[in-house]
Amino acid sequence: MLGAIGLDERQETAYRALVALGAAEVPDLARRLALPEPETERALRGLESQGLAAQSSARTGRWVAAPPAVALGPLLTQQRHDLEQAELAAAALAQEYRAKAAEPAVHDLVEVVTGAAAVAHRFRQLQLGAAREVCALVTGEPVAVTGPENQAEETAVARGVAYRIVVERSVLALPGSIGELSAALGRGERVRVVDRVPTKLVVADGTLAMVPLSGRGAEPAALVVHASGLLESLTALFDAVWGVALPLRLGGGDVVGEDGPGGPDATDLEVLSLLLAGLTDASVAKQLDLGLRTVQRRVRNLMELAGVTTRLQLGWHARERGWMSQDGAAADGLGGEGDGGAGIRGDGVGGEGDGGAGVRGEGDGGEGVWDGSLPG
Fold first, then answer.
1. Can you give the pLDDT of all 376 residues of the chain as single tens digits?
2. S-S: 37 plus which of 13, 30, 122, 368, CB 3.0-4.6 Å?
3. Is the dihedral of CA 296, 301, 307, 312 positive or negative?
4. N- to C-terminal Cα separation, the chain
5. Alpha-carbon separation of residue 281 from 276, 287, 311, 317 (angstroms)
6. CATH superfamily membership of 110-258
């Protein structure tokens, strides 16, 4: 117990015995400790050097213990001081380490992982370490972990981590894939499909990515990419594929269905046309005899289908995808009384004068329909 202040086991035993006896000669103390006399004397000399024992001035060869309250106090004070200095040194080293880690060397930005077991372990770590979102491009040929083996995905989702996944169309034909996709959609994951993905890819929180490295027939290997320009490029690659992929939805009986390119139905197109014409959500609901929440839900679905986050983007995508040319939904003049037509079809998108509603335009077609965030 007294080792914390610098006493070894024999010195502590000798001091305790000397305190109990009050005073003792070397032969008597050696018998009590069951130690040879030379070792007992060395222990006493060590105690003397630390001020815990002294030879009696009244009787030669007799040793007396120093009062513990007096003798141990300075040693404890010194020990506390040494611990405080050690804590300060540790804090300084930690700060130096963090500063160094904030500017990693080039060779620290990319980590090479080799072997199926190592790749699977790193893949699991990447998902379990995510705090916000995991984005993945999935092909039909797993490198080290199959869908049923990826238990980390379910664990991460249970912690509140969002998943965005794009799968190749060929994955839908694999045995068991529909069940896995149904389970993912049932957990609230967002899944889309595309004809082909350029590469397997996993990105966690936008701070760490993993891509396969090995070619056909070689030992499984992967690159783990840390924060860098390369990571930003991989994140942009995922966003680009996500933007053109089509959402998968869970139908009745847990059947997975794919939203085709002509996803919007006739009512969706009517809602979109009236919004582009400058009507508010409430006015659209009244015109089409729908509930306000129904209109807002349809707009949300259109935004998700288009892969956008604002109504301004939805208007642009509606034109790019040809939605506004279906069933005469984009007839000239929908934008109001001006010559330009309805916002995205006219010459006066967002402009001043008679060019139509545009995006917060100042013409006769109305304003403020597309500038706000989606209600509800």
1. 666 666 788 888 888 888 888 788 888 888 888 888 888 888 888 888 878 788 877 777 788 877 877 767 777 787 788 888 888 888 888 888 777 665 555 566 888 888 888 888 898 899 998 999 999 999 876 655 565 667 888 889 998 999 999 998 888 878 877 888 888 888 889 988 888 899 999 999 999 999 988 666 677 888 899 888 889 999 999 999 998 888 876 554 444 555 555 568 888 888 888 887 777 899 889 888 889 999 998 898 888 887 788 888 888 878 777 776 544 343 332 333 333 333 333 333 333 333 333 333 333 333 333 333 333 3
2. 30
3. negative
4. 66
5. 11, 10, 12, 19
6. Endonuclease Chain A (3.30.870.10)
Sign of the C-alpha dihedral, residues 171, 173, 175, 176?
positive
Please state, in angstroms and rounded to a whole number, the distance separating the CA atoms of residues 270 and 268: 5
262-376 domain in CATH 3.40.50.2000? no
